[in-house]
Prior knowledge:
Layout: E1 10-13, H1 19-36, E2 46-48, H2 51-71, E3 77-78, E4 82-87, E5 92-95, E6 108-117, E7 121-122, E8 125-130, E9 136-141, E10 151-154, H3 168-171, E11 175-179, E12 187-191, E13 195-198, E14 201-203, E15 205-214
Antiparallel strand pairs: 1-12, 2-4, 3-15, 4-15, 5-13, 6-12, 6-15, 7-14, 8-11, 8-13, 9-10
Amino acid sequence: MIHLSETLALQSVEGFLSPDELAQLGKIMDDELAASGWTPGTQAEVVRAPGDAQAILREATARALPVLRHVLPSVAADAPWGYTELTAGREVPAHIDGIPEPAVAPRRIGRIGVTLEQADAGGEFYVETTASATVWSGQVVGEREGYAAGTGLTRRLPHPNRHETEPVWLRDAVRTRWVTGAPAGVALAYGAQLVHGVLPVRSGRLRKFVTDLLDTRLP
């Protein structure tokens, strides 16, 4: 049964990727991007990571599941991982991923991201908390849908999304921002209903992997 608290949780996993795994992933992505010529066409565009990278990241997630389940007990597995880059002047404005189909498994309980390469300046991940009612959709789910009774659902920013600006319903909400300083290799898992974003990159390039955390393994 899914509880509201886990959809608003935040958990770090230090050592999610070892130095050797980071080096392997760096080479895999360098080779992949050289071969494909891919560059982000829009702000925070995500492309599916290649198979060799998927294997490393999924093994790392499996190792981390006992830690993740301390705060996200409903998480059973990760979805396929994506890769993204942010260069100078680009950011991920504050948003909520949300739970797209709350009554249909596999459900997105949270998200997890890990930095491959930090920007020279800027590009920090952050979460925000707020007392504003505007983030809540008014929809409530319960045991019939697989949740604790009376679980409220937030609004959400549909995916895929170009992340050009904050959604209108979030823009006027008074919020408190909590900025992380997690280095490369440290994973940050966060509930699907938590406001979050990435500060503008001021110089250099931010490279990271992201995926959903699901309550059911994909076939």
